[in-house]
């Protein structure tokens, strides 16, 4: 038995003095309202209405039950209202600060279509994780190990010239093999990629092929790194999407395969599950992950 529906029908019929009008107020057919009230009477063991009279006349038992029934229905209405408000409450989400306004706007629009209202907080990797721990945000797109990644974004090297080889090998930047300029070309790692599974692998590759320590450097900002690349033969470690946005020419790295790996962290577990389930593709577009195997 739909107990709440039965009490709602009882209140509406009693207030209007008519099964027909009460059923209409409950937004059910009269036959449904009658069955619900009859089931309620059977459950309670007493009649709520005197069916021998014209109209819907309450019995004494019905009059005694009416105040409590009204409180129950009003409480249920209030709870539904609060539930709607809660669904509209923004979910503060920490995102990589490399996400563009356009990509975040598209993610926001997709989230709204899925009943999620987002409030973005852009931050670098370590800060995003801390924001979740301190509960300054409800959830964050955080760094994950490649094996545990929900979203993966392939990285390569991008330069200002289109005269790069189809695949760029780090060893070609070694002294004596670097192209034409006496200045040694460098590889710039942006803050988003200053994480162990990317940075340390690049440093190990640098050392293995004989580059100078300064030839693979972590930049303080993406803007600063891009400026260095635009004015030289330096290369930026970045995604295909970023290279296109910055007007650079992207190539894969010859010696190693590097990926940005993301997951969802949340203060409350179901927030992470909801974001991943409802917004996987929208977040993939925002991060530049082309598909589940990117």
TrEMBL record:
| InterPro entries recorded | LysR_HTH_N, WH-like_DNA-bd_sf, WH_DNA-bd_sf
What GO molecular function terms would the record report? DNA-binding transcription factor activity; transcription cis-regulatory region binding
Q: Which domain of life is it from?
A: Bacteria
| Assigned protein family | Belongs to the LysR transcriptional regulatory family.
Q: Name one matching Pfam family.
A: HTH_1
User: Which controlled-vocabulary keywords does the entry list?
Assistant: DNA-binding, Transcription, Transcription regulation
User: Record keywords: Transcription regulation included?
Assistant: yes
By its UniProt entry, which Gene3D superfamilies does this protein fall under? Answer: Winged helix-like DNA-binding domain superfamily/Winged helix DNA-binding domain
UniProt entry tagged with the keyword Ion transport: no
Q: What is the recorded name of this protein? A: DNA-binding transcriptional regulator, LysR family
What organism does the record attribute this protein to?
Streptosporangium subroseum
- Residue span(s) of domain HTH lysR-type: 1-59
